[in-house]
Amino acid sequence: MEGLTLGDLVRNRSMSPEMAATLAAAVEERRSLLTVAIPRMAGKSTVLNAYLERRPSGTPVHQLSRDAGPGLGIPAEPDAGFLLMSEISGVGFPEYLWGSEVRLVFEALGRGFSLATALHAGGLEEAFEVITGANAVPGGHAARIDLVAYIRSLGHWQRPSRRVVSAMYEIAGVVDGQPRARLLYRWVEAADRFETVERPLRIGAFAEPLERHLAEFAGTAAPA
Q1: Is residue 26 part of a domain?
Q2: What total of structural domains would you count in the chain?
Q3: CATH code of the domain containing 153
Q4: Which end of the chain is least crowded, N or C, by CB within 10 Å?
């Protein structure tokens, strides 16, 4: 899935046109995105990269790493760019951040940056337990995540037959460490189809951006 665009992910039925349209509208608005999955190689980074590829022209992306020193590569002055934290994980790779490093990144979002990041978890609530519990990110800072995409990997994790964004949520806040979320879209496994549950309230606040992007992606959808 490396190097795929949102259109590619609609064509290979990893996501619906509505999901792709919401992501395209969100990145135009410089919204913060979290991708979540259990196994490795489920496509978390692929979705993040496809998302960032659609960012407004001239919008910088800052790859964070502890190799960059105590500031992790976060610019001293806000530039309306994206902070790319490859994964919230204690594994130890320089681009995988944990604990006080994660708290530093979330604090920086209040200075005008946006976030693109991923983590391993079994669902939305578990993901926020990792952020607010294991990493002690304050709820008000964790609420700076706007959109969460939960990804399923089908078949053997090393050779999946398919990867699917099985749920997409809009985050309205975080209370007692848990997200106040609206389920926007889901994949119905038994019928192998995507379903719109609710339209976003905050992302694409005006209808036109979503409708414009939906018209773009609807033509790329493969038949079920």
Answers
A1: yes
A2: 1
A3: 3.40.50.300
A4: C
Helices 44-53 and 17-28: crossing angle, nearest 10°? Answer: 60
Q: Which residues pair with 165 in a beta bridge?
A: 151
The separation between the first and the last C-alpha atoms of the chain, rounded to the nearest angstrom, is: 20
CA 207 to chain centre: 21
Mean predicted confidence (pLDDT) in 78-86:
96
Residue 180 domain-assigned?
yes
Residue 32's domain spans which residues?
6-217
What Å distances lie between residue 125 and 103, 186, 190, CA to CA? 19, 16, 23
Other C-beta atoms closer than 10 Å to the C-beta of 199 total 15
Residue 223 within a domain: no
Per-residue DSSP letter, 150: E
pLDDT of 219 higher than 90: no
Whole-prediction pTM: 0.93
Q: What is the DSSP string of 48-116?
A: HHHHHHTSPTT--EEE--GGG-TTTT--SS--S-EEEE-EE--S--TTEE-THHHHHHHHHGGGT-EEE
Angle at CA of residue 8, ends 5 and 197, nearest 5°: 95
In a domain, 1, yes or no: no
Q: What is the dihedral of CA 61, 3, 23, 185, to 10 degrees?
A: -140
Res. 1 pLDDT band, cuts 50 70 90 = very low
